[in-house]
Design goal:
heterodimer, B: mainly alpha, 7 helices, disordered N terminus
Chain lengths: 660, 156
């Protein structure tokens, strides 16, 4: 268990007891569910061999640090995209091209904890261009290019200390946000932990996304009181221009939070008017704070990532910027904050409550106009609860967390403690259906469920615990997703399947938005890698002191060169390997005995670089690791390694040894 | 020399690769492939075989278009030389004199549609065997690029 929030641990035992006794909140029997699965469920998720799924779903890999790609409704796993953790299969973080992607102000980091995938949007609909995901531990946001399914960019978030309310997007991907879960001294300094209330602040970061390239830059941070900022969602439609962050620990406790941060009857959803913030920014109201953060970018032309360090960030203090931030009081430590497709309702799920709170955006604007305030916290006006409340979904279940929406005016909320999804009517707030899930659901994901245009066909429940659901695999069990048909009046469980890591959140998109965008291979004519050999004629081996560059090519089924002599013990040998294939699905691999990093897996038209440092004399084989043709086993070669002081001439060839 | 295991593997793969599709029109296994006119009885004339792919008809000019051939030479150098030397056998056959033994359509289709050719065209299937099962790679040339490469072949 490595859950995002401590309360999950707190309720684990209770949850399991409830689950196993079959005492879910409405008395539905768990054991009935398997048998109750209607016999046609199988046909509804069956995608015949060779046919495509209707949807892609991107599931966070949780503590694997990666992003997984599944098809729906089949639940077939297509790909795991390495993002925040190294991946030796794809050489991510091991080859020279991608090492800079994992650079941070703390140095090279091989791991992180990925939580929330967020698809880019245009006019409030997913557009299939990019998907963003947050690193929770060492705060970062990544952008993945969905034409190649590769991580294109990672930006570190300064002044943040647990990037949980992230990376939620505005309806035109003007910004993705990064709110800190942990408040810390800003800038960081050595102070007593007990000075929390005095010294600790929470930074809410707005990352600008370039409309054309997707390139990210930190536009500004809003310096907030030292609470824990948990999740976020942008306004849409009329409420476009606002971003809503849930918070807990308005008690400002720094120890035993499971008790001490649950004292106040209400915490806050912070409503940030980001268009107002832009005005203050242009008026020069922001202060330049010293900072230290990296911005890593993969250049697809050069096929190479680079990392730059930035030293300053613009910070807006709400005290200097009236009208920029308001607090919406929300009961019981709200976790999810979700906005319905019309943009009118802001849904707060108080995780220690049985109710779900709906605020009205229209009423919020009126309350601001009328100054219907209940005092302030740290100079930020607290709106009167009754003045902004639209309604309450009463007694939905135990432990509400997240809500998403369909295209027919219904909301769906996950209930962690009672392990169920509850369907309710937006506007009347009445519960209309519920379905048990197995077990302990965190997020749920409707295709397009946080956009203006939800697709009302499927809901994916993302469950933390599987216990008895699958064949046991020792003490560590898989986590799981469950596919629920939401197209009818009653929700229907269709399928469940194991996931990688902990699938915190997922987002889905219709396949026909993504399939036409797919790149099939990299064109050699566009390969601007500085060390590419674009034909076999360009292959060579060059010594510079004890550094040796091997400019090598691959094609079915040989390396050029495949025999190299004159390498010495103590050399640093860089194999720059270019795959000359120009066809779909013909990668070649490269591995050499004794290498201390990982294989290369080189897509057609791509160049990748492996560093090898031979430690002893001998003749060392290398080979292609990806079965490429009937002659794949012949795709091999040798490097002769001589003593450090030897005079073995540097030679290389393919087929016939040259006369030197 | 290959080990018997590898011969077995290659043969097995070829068996499965080539095992589909009708084979009634295939030439006799001992056809002396490179010589154009020495057909066995009943074997189709390779010069009449246009192959399978986008090119169904192609008239070569009376003389070589030098500009086009020069362009084709560059494309050939970039996209083909990893496996084909102009005048000698390498991974695959040499293109020198190819138009004396193949129709221009066949050559174009072999460049543009090799996956289907090595599965369904009798000559291409036999060549695959002859060249140790090394498949002709599809380098995704445009028709115009393939045409230029063909013109270059006329100069060899």
């Amino acid at each position: 268990m490595k859950n995002s929030s401590k309360f999950l641990l707190f309720f684990l035992a209770a949850s399991l007891v409830l689950s196993f006794l079959g005492l879910t909140s409405c008395g539905q029997q768990n054991q009935g569910s398997g048998g109750a699965l209607s016999s046609d469920a199988a046909s509804q998720v069956y995608v015949p061999p060779g046919q495509y799924d209707k949807y892609y779903s991107f599931l966070s890999g949780g503590f694997s640090g990666q992003l997984s790609v599944y098809g729906l409704p089949s639940g077939r796993l297509f790909r795991v995209i390495p993002v925040f953790s190294v991946d030796p299969e794809k050489a991510y973080g091991f080859n020279e091209e991608t090492k800079p992607m994992l650079e941070t102000s703390h140095g090279f980091l091989p791991w992180d904890d990925a939580h929330h995938p967020e698809l880019s949007q245009t006019n409030g609909e997913t557009d299939g261009r990019w998907i963003f995901i947050n690193a929770n531990n060492t705060p970062r946001v990544a952008r993945i290019d969905l034409s190649v399914f590769e991580t294109a960019e990672i930006i570190e978030i300064p002044n943040s200390a647990g990037n949980h309310s992230s990376p939620f997007t505005t309806q035109n991907t003007d910004y993705v946000v990064a709110g800190t879960r942990f408040s810390v001294p800003i800038p960081q300094k050595d102070v007593a932990i007990a000075s929390y209330a005095k010294n600790f602040k929470g930074a809410l970061t707005f990352i600008k996304v370039d409309k054309e390239t997707g390139k990210m830059s930190i536009a500004f941070q809003v310096l907030m009181p030292g609470f824990d900022y948990d999740l976020a969602h942008a306004g849409k439609g009329n409420s476009d221009g606002w971003m809503f962050f849930s918070s807990y620990n308005s008690e400002q406790q720094n120890s035993l939070l499971e008790v001490n941060a649950s004292q106040n009857d209400k915490d806050f959803i912070a409503a940030i008017n980001w268009k107002k913030a832009e005005e203050y920014l242009s008026k020069g109201k922001a202060k330049d704070f010293p900072a230290n953060y990296t911005h890593n970018y993969y250049d697809e032309g050069k096929q190479m990532a680079s990392s730059e360090t930035l030293k300053s960030v613009k910070v807006l203090d709400p005290a200097d910027c009236p009208g920029m931030v308001y607090f919406l009081p929300t009961p019981k430590s709200p976790h999810g904050v979700d906005v319905d497709p019309t943009g009118e309702y802001i849904i707060g799920a108080g995780k220690l409550s049985t109710d779900i709170t709906a605020h009205s955006f229209t009423k919020m604007l009126k309350a601001i106009e009328d100054k219907a305030f209940d005092g302030d916290r740290f100079g930020i006006p607290v709106l009167k609860y009754d003045a902004v409340l639209a309604g309450v979904v009463k007694d939905g279940g135990l432990g509400p967390l997240h809500s998403e929406f369909d295209d027919k005016g219904f909301g769906y909320t996950s209930f962690f403690i009672s392990s169920e999804v509850v369907k309710w009517k937006v506007g009347t707030w009445e519960v209309v259906d519920r379905i048990p899930v197995y077990y302990s659901i965190g997020h749920l994901s409707v295709i397009g469920g946080d956009t203006r245009k939800p697709d009302g066909k499927y809901l994916l429940a993302l469950n933390k615990i599987t216990k008895d659901r699958y064949l046991p695999t020792g003490p560590e069990l898989c986590q799981a997703a469950q596919l629920i048909d939401i197209s009818g009046d009653k929700m229907k469980l269709l399928l469940d399947f194991p996931t990688i890591g902990e699938p915190h959140y997922a987002q889905g998109i219709a396949a026909d938005k993504l399939v036409p965008r797919q790149k099939q291979f990299y064109k050699l004519s566009e390969n601007k890698h500085p060390n590419a050999a674009l034909t076999e004629k360009d292959t060579k081996v060059v010594r510079e002191g004890n550094i040796v560059h091997v400019y090598m090519t691959t094609i079915r089924s040989h390396f050029s060169p495949d025999n190299i002599e004159g390498i010495r013990v103590g050399d640093k040998v860089y194999f720059h390997v270019t795959n000359l294939e120009q066809d779909f699905d013909v990668p070649h691999g490269f591995a050499i005995l004794g290498m201390q990093n990982s294989e290369l897996l080189i897509m057609p038209g791509q160049t990748e670089t492996l560093l090898w440092e031979p430690k002893s004399e001998g003749v060392i084989p290398f080979y292609c690791t990806d079965f490429c043709s009937a002659l794949h086993q012949e795709m091999q070669g040798y490097v002769r390694v001589s003593a450090a002081n030897s005079n073995t001439p540097l030679k290389w060839w393919l087929g016939q040894e040259p006369n030197i | 020399m290959k080990s018997s295991a590898l011969i077995f593997l290659t043969t097995t793969i070829l068996f499965f690769t080539l095992g589909c599709g009708g084979d009634a029109s295939a030439p006799a296994a001992n056809g002396n492939e490179p010589k154009p006119k020495s057909m066995l009885a009943g074997e189709p004339d390779p010069m009449q075989d246009k192959g399978i792919g986008p090119i169904t008809s192609l008239e070569l000019g009376a003389t070589v278009d030098e500009a086009m051939a020069e362009k084709g030479k560059n494309i050939y150098a970039k996209m083909c030389t990893a496996c084909h030397k102009p005048t000698e056998k390498f991974i695959g056959p040499a293109p020198k004199g190819v138009l004396e033994r193949r129709s221009p359509e066949w050559v174009m289709n072999m460049i543009l549609n090799p996956e289907v050719m090595i599965k369904e065209n009798a000559i291409a299937k036999k060549l695959l065997m002859e060249f140790n099962g090394s498949p002709m790679a599809n380098q995704n040339l445009t028709q115009e690029e393939a045409r230029a490469v063909l013109e270059y072949f006329r100069t060899l």
